[in-house]
Amino acid sequence: MTYELYYWPEIQGRGEYVRLALEEAGADYVDVARGPRGSAAMMKMMDVRKGTPPFAPPFLKAGKLVIGQTANILLYLGARHGLAPKTEAGKLWVHQLQLTITDFVVEIHDTHHPLGPSLYYEDQRAPAKKRTTEFWDERVPKYLGYFEGLLDANGGAYVTGRRLSYVDLSLFQIVDGLRYAFAKRMKAFERNIPGLVGLHDRVAARPNIKAYLASERRIPYNEQGIFRRYRELDA
Predict the structure, then answer these.
(1) Please, what sign has the CA dihedral across residues 20, 147, 94, 112?
(2) Per-residue pLDDT for 96 more than 90?
(3) Domain covering 88-206 assigned CATH 1.20.1050.10 in the classification
């Protein structure tokens, strides 16, 4: 089966967590909006008013299934491609962790858009600077400290132990994205999270991921996605 991934063609965004899972699994997929059909095909899928239409991208078409929400898509792919534990308890655990990552992604986005996505960054610079300070003082230590603690407690190479799960791929993206958006702040903070830094490097070295990162399929970071580089926020 060839999966169809629907997400905005210009940004990594929330769709990148799904791309990483598909690439690691070696799955056959089409990034629809980046192809000849473009974003029009994606918008057409969202205009459907019967069945189980998605609210917003990313969503994945798998045969007759249309699955929306990043964590929900990863729950499905994890079970099918060995990227999640086999037990019900294990599957629920990594899903829970992915939902926590989802919460963190929202807070990352809000550093540059604290007043909402309908306003330009230039219209909310002062609130963004205040929000970013609180983010690095309080929220980054809370979230990354939690995942660092999980790695330390299980003593494994990955969050759940010896085997990689989609949560590890998502944590790679978190560390990598924060390095882009907040290069100075992240460099100073990384001494507190050696386990996550090591996890990032192990994921980046995996053959399928390494090939993906070096390919044109990996959309470069830019100032349109979740991770945005504004120098005044990285002071």
Answers:
(1) negative
(2) yes
(3) yes
For the chain, domain boundaries: 88-206
Cβ atoms < 10 Å from Cβ of 194 = 12
Query: Tokens 């192990």 map to which residue?
Result: 202
Q: What angle do CA 184, 187, 188 make, to 5 degrees?
A: 90
Q: Which of 204, 199, 184 is nearest to 151 (CA)?
A: 199
Paired with 66 in beta bridges are 61
Instruction: Encode pLDDT of 4-57 as tens digits.
Output: 999 999 999 999 999 999 999 999 999 998 887 777 888 888 887 777 888 999
The partner residues of 4 in beta bridges, in order of sequence, read 30, 61
Read off φ and ψ for residue 158, nearest 5 degrees. Answer: -130, 170
161: which strand partners?
158
pTM of the complete model beyond 0.70: yes
Cα atoms found within 13 Å of the Cα of residue 115, Cβ hemisphere only: 13
- Per-residue model confidence as pLDDT tens digits over 119-128: 999 999 999 9
Pairing assessment for the beta strands 29-31 and 3-6 based on DSSP bridges: parallel
